[in-house]
Amino acid sequence: MARWLAAGESAANLDLQPDRAPLHQTSRAWFGQVMPGSWAPNVDSDGVDGKLAGVSAIRAHDPAFDENVFLAQVQRLFFAVLEAWTALKPPLSQGVMASLIWEQQSAQVRVYAGRGWRNLLDQLTFTSAVVAGAVSDSGFDTVTVRINANSADYDLDAGGSVIRGDIKPWDWTEDWIFQRPSTAATAQPGTITSQACPNCGASVNVDITSICPFCDAAVISGKFGWLLTRIDRI
């Protein structure tokens, strides 16, 4: 796991000027990239047969892989990743994002925090999600999840004034690409675990990613196994 994570730690140039963004464009400047030598499968280019073949290839070495269970876990990750962004607390998402995209998120959080800005995604709703592509090749399992969501998306300055974006909720769609080593397998059923917070040592019940109620640190169960490596706005 450490080797393939390290492969994604290359630097990325970020445009951190959200005040220049037009309406109906996200403030987020962290999009990541798939792991070297891999690609993001997509039903738009691969067709339904390509997606089904990819899922079958994953199940060939991981019979426990289940699309519905996977999508339910992605929904929880979706809110954890965006909470890390809007709360300006990137440690909350570190355990579920690949190195490059997490470093991009952290860099933009530092810029926002330094300026006294915040991005708000008011009334954020996870509308639906489907597996829009899958492949098992080049040392990686890769699954593209097409997420439909609804929210406002706007930035506040240090004085609480809106400086860009949409204050009214609108529909948006993104492809979130998840990857893991192709030698990995789905964890045993029952994702709830009890473990100690790595920051303060408190006992915490963990479901993929949880927040310690005592110190607000992220606690990762390690049960999911997939990491978010790239986001494409559709």
Would you mind describing this structure in some detail?
- The chain is of the alpha+beta class and 234 residues long.
- It contains four helices and nine strands; from the N terminus they run ααααβββββββββ.
- It has helices at 2-6, 43-61, 67-86, 99-115; strands spanning 118-120, 125-137, 140-156, 162-181, 192-196, 203-207, 209-211, 218-220, 227-233.
- The strands form three sheets. Strands 1, 2, 3, 4 and 9 form a five-stranded antiparallel β-sheet that branches. Strands 5-6 form a two-stranded antiparallel ribbon. A two-stranded antiparallel ribbon has the order 7-8.
- Strand 3 and strand 4 form a beta hairpin.
- The chain is globular.
- The two termini are 30 Å apart.
- 36% of the residues are buried.
Nutshell version of this structure?
The chain has 234 residues and is α+β, with helices and mostly antiparallel strands. The chain has 4 helices and 9 strands.
